[in-house]
Amino acid sequence: MANEPPRTVLLGDLEIGNTLPLVLIAGPCQIESAAHAMDTASALAEICGEAGIGLIYKSSYDKANRSSIGSQRGIGMDKGLQILSDIREQLCVPVLTDVHAPDQCAAAAQAVDVLQIPAFLCRQTDLLLAAGKTGAVINVKKGQFLAPWDMQHVAAKIASTGNDRILLCERGTSFGYNTLVNDMRALPIMGSTGYPVVYDATHSVQQPGGHGTSSGGQREFAPILARAAVSIGVAAVFIETHEEPDRAPSDGPNMIPLREMPALIRNLQRFDALAKTV
Fold it and tell me: If you count Cβ atoms within 10 Å of the first and of the last residue's Cβ in the chain, which end, N or C, has fewer?
């Protein structure tokens, strides 16, 4: 892969780049209610404001990739997008959500600032093109089945629409049954495309299908992996958080308790400053 010069993705007043100060993408896995989403977003906005770190609030209106047919998927697209739009307007923070099909992209881009392509869908050409054509920032997660150098082709599909507001996200690689592993070489390899790299700390410790009808996880390792990734130098870190992770409807075993976020953010900022000191 060619070593391309670092790109900066602008999102309102927020600048996202591999050589710029760390940005946080954070929120609960799925939208549970308007009140819960607003409370969580408000808490994160306050925490990040005090820390002086840029925030993109994230939550999903639909979790289409679940272990079981009986798993909770979310509150639906119409209600979910309205909630995210309200958070963006009232708290003045950019927001992110997943899209799963081409016909969701245009509507979602009206309500949120960042469209996220789930890892299992990262090679779906029609979805990538539809997302790119919206002009929104696109955070595309590297499939658990892909090598990091394959992501240049994923980015090229989006960029073919004329949209180069692309973030490439590492979230672990399949390593045997119900297990993921991180190859930290993936971060500079994807960074050589020039596009900002995001490290997803909480999905990297997921154990897909590990509980049979639901996924397991080892949240105790998420801060450790986050520090390792940030010390290499990334544009943003992605962390799912919840006030009571063990009662969350999805991905609870991976999520960081909200009360632990202030200390974790401060710690990551220190590693980020060291990594980006010239």
Answer: C
